[in-house]
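Worked example 2:
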Amino acid sequence: MANIYAERIEALRALMAANGWDAVVVSGSDPHASEYPAARWQQVKWLSGFTGEAGDLVITMDHAGLWTDSRYFIQAETQLEGTGVELHKTRVPDEVPIPLWLSGRANVVALDGLCWNLDAVKELEAEFHVVDVPDMLDALWSDRPEVPVTPVTTLDVNCFGGIPREEKVSWLRKWMLLQGVDAALLTALDEIAWLLNVRGSDIEYNPLVISYLLVTQDYVKWFTKKAPADLDLDPDTEDSYAELVNDGANIEEYASVYEGLQTLAGEAEEVKLFVDPSTLNYHIYKCICDNFHPESVSFGKSPVILEKAVKTESEIENMRQAYVDDGVAMERFLHWLETEVATGRMVSEWEASERLTAFRAEIPGYRGNSFENISAYGAGAALPHYSTPREGSATIRPCGLYLVDSGGQYLTGTTDITRTIPMGPCTDLEKEDYTLVLKGMIALSMAVFPKGTTGHHLDVLARMPLWKAKRNFGHGTGHGIGYYLCVHEGPQSIRWQYNPQPLLPGMVTSNEPALYREGMHGVRHENIILCKDAGVSQFGEWNEFETLTLCHFDTAAVLPDLLSADELAWLNAYNERVYETLAPLLPEDVALWLRSKTLSV
């Protein structure tokens, strides 16, 4: 039987032949450079069947390739089987990036300019003739989803922390004056949501609204309305729009962003516009080129990224509470799981995932999960971004390791946590891997470092225990966490690739070293850490981390001899803190169980 994805690629090749294109490059993103695109822009998935969050396709007349990183190598090999699509590995020493691979193979490269950011297309334009074809796949994708429309809500900063939108807009306008620009176009959805204090659900797991934002010294235009003008708005959206209008924002049609830019260009002889090329899509860039003199466009990194990453005191306090609440849900889930499996009942990975979501849903202020739960037993956990199947998922047995990576969206913050759970007897190798990964996580948790230190500098702390045993993991050690926003945010990171952004007090970042053995097991331990001021000495200013996550580490798989005295002290103190904080909030039987799980090693 013919593979549906192979058929779709052949249909695209027919389109290529009809238009004289040598190659088509398909982005895994959307018009806003989002990590998780809405269904309409999941073009890589539609063409190839690959469901990972990071991957781009290249189609030529005789080759189809997917470029993705080590988090998805095993997943990609499985999902691409029979499609004719070949895996090209990225972030590896012998990586061949797309522009280099295409060199000598193509002259005319077509792409959907709505879904490629300017930085990426500039690399292609340096060597190829690039053809922009907005919504290219519309000709082939007959049931393609529309641009999503979900209710828009505003955040009450008096209740849920943060800064009023009027202050944020004033701050941006002051920044614009200092930069000598008259207007700023924001295209990243989390930046817009943060600046306007708005939330939606246009993208699954991400409380975002598909939109553009244009700010000048005189007005704010939010291009977000996507429903027909004669369609009544839902009450939440109507109230939110009224609040925004009252605060000086103009609500415009999503597709009228082009008209908005044309109008801006005509308002004065020389209007200087600021844009961030890392999130500006190529199609809008061409519109800007058609209406603005090149010297009137200022390119740079959006100031919102850093301002958003450094949380306010009220946001930090609310996040602390969110992690208490989330910890209660996690401990109830882990107690339930251990009890059910111990009785001999057949609990599947999918059932466990659904049960965890149900516990989170009982928390006041819960607004959904922050990403798709990774519920993986045994060999499934060797896939860093394992997608738990609804049908036919593995049964969690009373032995070996079970990994669950999950998080919640709350009005008071966003959570992300991974626990690897010994479900019963474990092999010596499982225990060794479990302990070495934990050792690295503890080392990073205890770090004290001078002001100006980057996550790149600290990454080695989490890896050294693994490196000494000649083991490693391919993904980063830490990513930023939003405040009731995206579970992944920058500008900070903790990874071996260089990132010049220092870790600043107020930044919230994950700490998640790991180890994966294909076909056997995976281990990942993840806590969320807050960068804090650690004081001043004669050698300068210092920072440290506060662990926000509250959920015990099961010591049944720990090999104490592999941990130093300081590491054992940290582990015992952390587990004791978890017990003292959460036990009063748990049902009596769960609290008693947690006491047994948090006894000193």
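The first strand starts at residue 23 and ends at 26. The radius of gyration is 25 Å.
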